């Protein structure tokens, strides 16, 4: 069976986005080319950053139509991430709040991609 193992975000400037994600993820990319960068994630997943002007075929629209979610487990884990990312100066799009699925917040990357932190499903 085929399983998804990579998410690709279209970015204006891969170098700028690489710096952002290097700091956020606290890890180095495994691929770093002028138009594409890839970060290994836990569980065999990869985050790809592709220069928007080089995407083939070109996307039909740009905008916030999804999110990358970081599920963190443990007591106060979401709040601890919120405080850490806030201290780092990451742009907060949604302050720490309680929704139907538990505590959560959203930050934005340099291209406005939404990065949500929440608890895993119980």
TrEMBL record:
InterPro entries annotated for this entry?
Answer: Glyas_Bleomycin-R_OHBP_Dase, Glyas_Fos-R_dOase_dom, Glyoxalase/dOase/EhpR, VOC_core
Q: Where is the VOC domain?
A: 3-120
Gene Ontology terms for molecular function: dioxygenase activity; lyase activity
Tell me the leader sequence span.
none
Do you know which Pfam families this protein is assigned to? Glyoxalase
Q: Which UniProt keywords apply?
A: Dioxygenase, Lyase, Oxidoreductase
- Supply the PROSITE patterns for this chain: VOC
Record's superkingdom? Bacteria
Name this polypeptide is given:
Catechol 2,3-dioxygenase-like lactoylglutathione lyase family enzyme
Organism in which the protein naturally occurs: Rhizobium fabae
